[in-house]
Amino acid sequence: MSYAYLFKYIIIGDTGVGKSCLLLQFTDKRFQPVHDLTIGVEFGARLVTIDGKQIKLQIWDTAGQESFRSITRSYYRGAAGALLVYDITRRETFHHLASWLEDAKQHANANMTIMLIGNKSDLTHRRQVSTEEGEAFAKEHGLVFMETSAKTAHNVEDAFINTARKIHEKIESGIFDVSNESYGIKVGLGGGTVRPGEAQASAATPAKSNCC
Amino acid sequence: MSVLLPVEDAFRLVLGAHGAHELGNGGVASSPHSHSHSRVSRASSSSASASASASASASASASAPAPASEALPGAASSSSSPASPSSSFQSSSSSSKDNAFETLFARDNVCIQLTQNARIAGRITLTRNAHVHGPAFLAWLPYNSGGAAATSSIALPKTTTTTTKSANAVANTAAGPSTSTSTTTTSSSSGKNNKHMYAVHPTCISEIHSIHQKAPPFRTFARSFASITFVLHHNHETLPTFFFVGGGTREMLGALASVARLTQSAEDPTILLVNDLADPLSRSLVGLDLALTGALPPMAHHHSQQQHQRRSVSSPVQRGGGGGGNDDLPIVQGFTAFLGAAAAAATDIINDIDNMFVSKAEAGANATEEVVAAAEGEREEDAAARLRATSSASAAEHGDLGSFVILKDAPPSGDGGTRARMVHQLAMVHEEPPVTARELSTFLDEEGRMCTPSAVLRRVFRGGLESSTPSTSAPELAPPSALQRDVWALLLGLYGDPQATPAERAETLKAKRRRYAELRMQWSSIDGTQARRFSKFRERRQQIDKDVPRTDSAHPYFNGYVVDEAEVAALVARNRRASSGASRASRSSSIEGGGAEAEPIVDEDAAPGVGSYSHELKAHRLDMLRGLLLTYGMYHFDLGYCQGMSDVASLLLSVMDNEADAFWCFVQVMDVHGFADNFLSDENGMARQLASVRDLLALADAELMAHLESIEADNLFFLYRWVLLRFKRELLLEEATRLWEVLFCSHESLEGLDVGTFHLYLAAALVTIHRDALLRAESLDDCLRWANSLKECLPLAEGLRRAESLVMELGTKGREAVAPCVADVDGGGGGGGGVDH
Hints:
The structure holds 2 protein chains of 2 kinds.
Chain A: E1 5-13, H1 19-28, E2 41-50, E3 53-62, H2 69-76, E4 81-87, H3 91-95, H4 97-107, E5 113-119, H5 131-141, E6 144-147, H6 156-172, E7 185-187, H7 199-209
Parallel strand pairs in A: 1-3, 1-4, 4-5, 5-6
Antiparallel strand pairs in A: 1-7, 2-3
Chain B: H1 5-26, H2 33-58, H3 90-94, E1 101-115, E2 118-129, E3 136-142, H4 169-173, E4 200-204, E5 208-214, H5 221-224, E6 227-232, E7 242-244, H6 249-259, E8 260-264, E9 271-276, H7 280-293, H8 298-320, H9 329-338, H10 346-363, H11 367-375, H12 380-390, H13 403-409, H14 416-429, H15 437-441, H16 453-463, H17 482-491, H18 502-524, H19 528-532, H20 535-547, H21 565-580, H22 615-635, H23 645-656, H24 659-671, H25 675-678, H26 684-700, H27 702-710, H28 720-724, H29 733-749, H30 758-769, H31 771-776, H32 780-789, H33 796-818
Antiparallel strand pairs in B: 1-2, 1-7, 2-3, 3-4, 5-6, 5-9, 6-7, 8-9
Helix pairs in contact in B: 1-2, 1-18, 2-21, 7-8, 8-9, 8-10, 9-10, 10-12, 12-13, 14-29, 14-33, 16-29, 18-22, 18-24, 20-22, 22-23, 22-24, 23-24, 26-27, 26-30, 26-33, 30-33
Organism (chain A): Pycnococcus provasolii
Function (chain A): Protein transport. Probably involved in vesicular traffic.
Protein name (chain A): Rab-2A protein
């Protein structure tokens, strides 16, 4: 499958907030009420189209438990985007966001796009964290914010695609050097449907494709 | 205390009605009798049905057990009496098709002679791995005087008539033919005499050099029946001479001829030389071996020359890669020519050769390695696997990945394809036929002590355990067998000292269950008020409650799959009790509710059928898992609970099917087998183990290790899950169970191996098997994706073989690399010792 870019994503957050379910909803468009707990890391991938370009999202779904932190940290390297997930029905998962952010700052590249996700928005009757609180936290730390439901698929598609759009914007504006893979971006062989006007992207493509 | 219900059941299973009765009086568990009783019938049902079929054919009643030995002179009955007992053992010795081992031949009333006046009757069998056309195995087991009881359990007390004390020449010659196949246990460490020690444990046909027949002349017993003596390659040792009291030598030889090539010796017509026909390569190698010993018959010599020819032609094809069938034609023809003598079997043989050749070419292993491997009779399974591999389009993708290649094509999970694959793979893991309950009983002396536990471990390591029910199509639906539970209990120290008597074992088990009940009370008695002031406990419980339903959630066991009538009866009984409200209060809290009152039992659950799924049973099993983990959190409070533990516990629970027993197995696995290290909060245990694998790899494949270093993947983080859960997540639960069985036995089976380290060799072995893929990796990310791509398709059999050779090759260096840190066994008071620790 040809694509213009490949973005590496990482999904982080406390255990049980629904990271694996978000991934499953996004890649398979289904919800599995009971999903075996993640040990180590799992992978998912999907092609999306941004501005007429085919972009492959390679998504790393990590384990949330504290005792796996040191290994989780090794996954940050080379991630272009991160979904930082908390559970709106469990306040403690919201409280732990700061420490997740700290980890991300230390171990990820500085330009990683982070999307804050308040998951389980369908469980309104059990909500412990208001939408406003989520928005405020995102604003304070310069994150994009969304509430999702892996169960109903509400906003799931948008969460992943908006993150991709953000990253793509950064490429377009020249923030990323796409030939440097530590940014979590690979230029695909096919180049997708690159329009003539997009000088930067098309200029980068042939440069990289030689060595792929 | 309803959670403790099955405790009594298993106990009863193990100990017979007497032991369970004691427990009932002990008051640890109060269980409805119907439940326990039906479980017992489950255990014995297989033997019952087997005896029915046996009595039809053997024309003798199964009720009278044979004396273990007989005084021969003047014993008129001696020639006819042993006809009956076999029937009660048939269930265990012949119903092994679920384990892929088919019985090619079985004959009762085959005796070995101890002294001039004493002999032991038993049953001789010839079995073969049906799935992979593996080598055939010859075994002989003496009858148990315990009669039907012998099939049920290792813990049963034995009341055996004592055999003649002096072990004579027969016993001496019965010493193991080689280290790879443990044969008769001649050492009687307890100093007690025991006919079981004469058992001939499965011996591969390829180990047999020749067969000496003796026709029956006159008079003395030794000469009054036709006999067969098997001479082994190894030092030309012999197995004990088998006297076919009821006849059947001709049939035996006929069966042997179907799996091996028998040729009459030129010098002595009563001697038949054996070559393994199932595997032309190893047969030829037998010839080579003969050449070395100077006893080479003309035909065999011929073979070996052909063999060399074949090898020299084969190398260009190897380089051709992929292994298209056409390239092999000339070689096959060459083979056909020399096989003129065996024209009748030619077609099959050509197929075999073809298969073997194609697969070997693809394997790309060097000839020397093959010679060694084939001589050990280990490669047939691979051959079959690789044959299948060649038919798949993606076979070449990863080069010489062996069985990995085919498995990769298998559907990911949950359907028939996976099951077929799994059965196939399970069959491949073991080199020897599985241990049956009957064989296991031969390791016990007359008092029921297990004199040589390490010999049992070695047999389990090589052969695994026979499954309880023939359910080839869906092994995940098979109930854990009584045999498996017994052996795991033994492996994991549940019975305490294996050399104890059954009564002592029963006492140990009883004490452990009582102790478990106490430990469990430590958390189950925490009420809401106390919990509010006990945040550490609350957090732990919350995490466990969250993780328990997320553990093996797709597995039938944890979905309340009803295995048999016994469980139906148990459910009905429990429902009746629950609806009467008598024990409602004592029922532990439900999984989801976290301390809430148990959900009311719904009517449709009242009588679920066998093969259906019961909500009640599901809740009960999840409740056991939860209880086990919470109790461990109290037992080892500092370690507490960590994700991954539920995976370890679920496997143990699915085998033991009993919360208390699984708990003590869990403790043993954590403390003795080193799992506790994996969960240290500083992650040092994992770091140390990954460093061990790195050191092993540096020794075994320096080039690969250098590459991993160059791409900054030498932390081996990509092997994290392999090591953390010892491949459990990479395999289906049944496969993982078999693998763990092997791992738990490994330190007794491989010289110089420390307990709890074999999985590190296995990890290193699997990495070297896939070195090509890893040499192509450009980053740690690539390695991680590679490791994840192997999920549920690890080449386990090949990996284990490679791991074993790594243990041998690396010797002390390897041992230093994996040197375990001293396990943190604080407060292990009730843990009990390992089998031999």
